Amino acid sequence: MEDSLDKLYKNQSLIYKYVLYFVTIGCIVFFFPRGGKFKYEFQKGKPWQYENLYAPFDFSIKKTADEIAQEQQALQEQQVPYYTYDASAVTEVNQIYDDSFSQVFPSERYSNTQLRRLKGIGQDILNELYKNGIVDNTAAGNSSEYLYLVKNNEASRIRKDELYTVTQVDSVVQESLRNRRAGEYYSLFQDLFFNLVKPNVSYDAELSKKELEDEMSRISTTRGNVDEGILIIARGEVVEAENYTILNSLKAEFESEVWTANN
To answer: Cα–Cα distance between 84 and 100 in angstroms, integer?
Structure first.
């Protein structure tokens, strides 16, 4: 008997820990509600057949699938597309310009002063054309007025009409020569630029898609909250669009696997 009491005293701490453990588990199971079936049946356009329903806890109003789809569609339509500026193409164009200039304007026909002036005019035209770049006429993208131009790893928001197209090159050359009082050299510069100028800006489908996906991932699936104790719907009230959405949100909370502590 004395040995049994000694063993009991020695194991008292261990027994106490086991008892405390099982009591704690029991309290958690008893006091923390778990998800279950929502006990109300309802239909849109039909009267609420139960007593007044008040929010049993705070919960968020979930957006409908249509609401989320509309937001996604709006993002697609409003997206500002990304275009990439190819600086290496500009370097190549400038190199070809330097190599080809003397073939169109030979030193035998022009003085050094004229050559310096004409070459400077041509270089200024190229600088203007490639300031933001030349985009291919068939470049993709949506109907946005703006675009992000990625140049030297930096994206700048500009208007689409700040890019030149290949078909606009000729008018830029004409206007530049006219402003410099060098219109008589138009045909020569036209020959020089005909095979020289090329597009260096292209639509970046991969980056545009990635940015759109990032924006879509930030669309919230909820809109607003219902505070505990707020009347959701009164007996006999018709279940309409807004309270139908709120009821479905509450139902989803009930039928979730485990209520969070905020519930």
So the answer is: 27
Q: Give buried/exposed letters for 75-101 (b at 16+ CB in 10 A, else e).
A: eeeebbbbbbbbeebbeebeeebeebb
Predicted confidence (pLDDT) at residue 260 exceeds the cutoff of 60: no
Please give the DSSP secondary-structure letter assigned to residue 185: G
Query: Smallest Cα–Cα separation from 134: which of 40, 202, 190?
Result: 202
CA dist., res. 223 & res. 60, Å (int): 7
Give tens-digit pLDDT for 20-52. Answer: 544 444 444 444 444 457 789 999 999 999 999
Is there a contact between 232 and 243 (Cβ–Cβ < 8 Å)? yes
pTM: 0.71
CA angle 170, 171, 176 (to 5 degrees): 100
d(CA 197, CA 94): 9
Whole-number Cα distances in Å, 198 to 33, 34, 104, 222: 69, 67, 19, 49
Q: Of the ranges 77-91, 167-181, 247-261, which one carries the lowest mean pLDDT score?
A: 247-261
Instruction: Supply the mean pLDDT for the chain.
Output: 86
CA distances from 52 to 44, 136, 253 (A): 17, 64, 19
